[in-house]
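Q: Could you write out the predicted structure for this multi-component system? I'm mainly interested in how the pieces pack against one another.
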Amino acid sequence: MTTDLAGLKTNRRTVLGGLAAGGALMLGAAPRFVQAQSSAPIKLGFQLHRTGIGAAYGRWYERTTQAALKLLNDQGGINGRPVEIVFEDDGTDPKRGAEVVEKLTTQAGCDLIFGPLFSHVVIGSAPRAGELKVPYLVCSEGYHVASGMLNRWTLQPGITDVRAQVSSMAPWVMQNLGKKVTMVFPDYAFGHDHRDFFTEAVKAQGGEVIAQIAIPPTETSFTRYLPQIPAETEVLYHVMVGPAVLTFVKELGEFYGSGARPQIFGFIDSLEAVDTAAPGLEFLEGTHFWEGHCRVKQADAPEWEGTYRAAVGVDDNGASVSDARDVSTYAHMFSCWETLFVIKKGMEASGYQSTADRQKFVEAIEAMTAFDAGLDHVQGAKTFNGKTHQVFGQQFISKVEGGKLMRVHATSIEDGVYPDAVDYTAQSF
Amino acid sequence: MAAVLALSAVGLSLTFGVMRVVNVAHGEFFMLGAVLAWVVAQAVPSAPLGFVAALILCPLVVGAVAALADTAILKRLNYDPEATIVATIGISYILQQGALSFFGPDARAVEAPFSLRLQFPWFGYSGYKLFVVIAAGLVLLAVWLFMTRSRAGLVMRATQVDRNTARAFGINVDRVYAGTFALGAALAAVAAVLIVPIQQAHYLMGHDPLLLSFIVVIIGGLGSIRGTLIAALLIGLSDGIISMFFTPTLAKIVATLAVALVLVFRPQGLFGARA
Amino acid sequence: MRALSLHLAVLALLLALHFVLPAYHHANLARIMVLAVFAMGYNIAFGYTGLLSLGHALFLSAGMFGAGLLIQHFGLTAAPALLIGTLAGAAMAALTGLLALRTAGVSLMIVTLMFAQAGYLTLLYFGAVTGGDEGFPVPAAGRVTFGLNLAAEGPRYLVALGLFALALMGNLALVRSRFGRVMVAMRENEERSRMLGYNPFAVKLGVMALSGLYAGAAGAFYGVMFGYVGATFATIPYSILPLLYVLLGGAGVTLGPLLGAVLMFYLIDLASSHTTVQLAVTGGALLVLVLFAPKGILGSLRERGLASWLP
């Protein structure tokens, strides 16, 4: 096996009882360049779901990140240095994810890693990031960061987590749609998070979840589950994901027909990269959705929203400018954009020069408390909890009108806050 | 669903029964059929016409791809069982990547040729789904007639029984194999075209049909089309019945174990001859 | 004698690489060695005895969760957890074998596949304990044993090498023993073996248990050493993985699994570095390899007489 990257020096190892110390020393502190040149580019690693079940998101994540990178470099880079991003495919697989973390850190020599979305991949890869002591900023909306499951090197400064998202929905749903809720969700971690957090939030608002219908993730036909929905349901809360969602909506429509039906509330996760005006989705007309970032450009959109859309290449409907049927994963991809700008802030605040400063970088981010809305935080203003490593922002509720999602409500950040489950700052690196 | 499963499984049964090859790429042929159906549907503006076009074109194209794969690769391996597995895994990777690169990672819907709702008193049912069942049944009937009544079918069955004797009788075994492989793939494609208005095309959609088709074929018994059909019906319907008694995940566990146990205690399947 | 020297030379080479490999490949090789142990277990069942199983992910995850759950929920330290995990793999394999070995050939394939699927679904069903589809990271305290921190690169590599060496030499001893020859006899002609007085079921059950022992060890060590336990390791691709490694490297050859593991790993790694269509590249490479070396690389070498003494 030969070394291949120019500038990457090999190290002779010593075999002693102190191998552990040697390993940590070698990887954590050895400078990659003989002298830290201030004009050498900063290398960021991006763990991308280019293949596997996450591929639909991965494609837009890459596109958004490239757009953000261009803007960043046009603005002068970080600390006056140009920025490069190395993308590596992890196949949406946790084992490969850990290997990619390895590759980006030790072979490509990246200063830090960001980008993965799927929870199981994040959880599978984070341990390695912690061992290699490399900052690992995930764009995952998972509760795993703030739950304390991971390590001090893992942060999520770009997107609100699902617990806050779901909790913040309860007040509006209770006040506007109904108090008796039936939940339909996929029978795995993502669905369980919705089930647990929403039930809790609904109770706190004086409502009740009267039925929880769990559906196996690989299910392709849902007709047999629909009769389980109790007749007194006022609100049907659905968060199915995966290729079968269109089938789900169609069958839901067939089930209710033109007769009476409860109010329906869903999460746009079901329809990311799918056109709401697609044939078969007519049943969604008049129903409501959570949106992390409004796909359709709203009338009161700030000026930077237009700049963002132009940079990434999406039109006012959230679809690609080159193909109106190619709908983006608009409610999630902003996370990459914002994370990149947080990286810039963190590196500038800590005076980041080389990998020896990784710890200072993490500490700098932990010290941050708020981000203003603007071109670097296009989804909106945020507050950041340095102890749980999680950021919180507004959430939006939209209604499907004429096949398009129009915003009807914006939550406040306080609607979604929950007590801290962990204090990473009290942990060692 | 059971009907479509039966179609896809019969395709596999042919390849498996006649050629004794484990075709891991069978699911990918299914996926290819669905993806091509979407392509055709985009090109032809009218939904019913597009559907008919897809029904004709896709199986032909997929069958051709399969025949190519067979002559170029599988034949040269002399159908060695282990090598075939690796080769078909390779083919399935290539097909998946092709779909990913050209079709994209999203799930895309294809419009049904007609939408008709049959309103029963206690639930609504889609007329199209009924059509799928009927269409699948017709295709299966055609396949059965072909296998039992036509000369080509006779040739195929002869080759299945004894390859060398067939060759001694002057049958071009290589061409039969290529044709069988193509037919198997084409059947999967037909199944996919039928199901895609209900299910959407997606580049990873081949995995479940592959699994299910294999199960159906083995349970039904190798080389017995009748067995495959009955097994498809059983498996397609039992899933629904079991899940009425258990939570969904538990139901799947039970169903999976049931399949395994059927095989353990009756290894030849329901209708297969004792190997 | 030549065989023994070759094996010792391979082990010596792996030890030497520990001192000279750059960090990236060093870490990769540690993973590869553990996965090779998994593949070796598979080779014992498939390569030598002809048992085509598609359910080995069940034994891998039995080992992984056996160790992982004990550490996570009962606070066990690494050594006993690893041991129990390994044994769990063997036990699971024996249990499965009791039922599955009543079938053969393709039926065996499907039955093992079904048991593995059921195992995966069971892991999901008990998600509150197993972490469901997300899995969980292994607590740091459970990754230290005998003063060695298994989370650190140096000790990790050496422990992986130790495991691999044990597995390899055990494998070598097995195939050259009387039982090893009976295994091959079962593969070649079961009826004749039965007539000679050997009990096929007992032999195959023993083989399954051994195979499961290897797989369980690989799973337990992989989880503890690399810090993550998850249901993904119980899915079908992880049953196909050892099959692929073995078929590539050489079925029925002791060094085949290692070669296959190294090849597949770097095939995927290099392909994804240089192109975005790495699935196709991997598929293409598989096709090329299988066309020109259908018995796996070492297997084809052996067949052509270039290395007919390879065990």
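A: Regarding packing and overall arrangement: The two ends of chain A are 32 Å apart (CA to CA).
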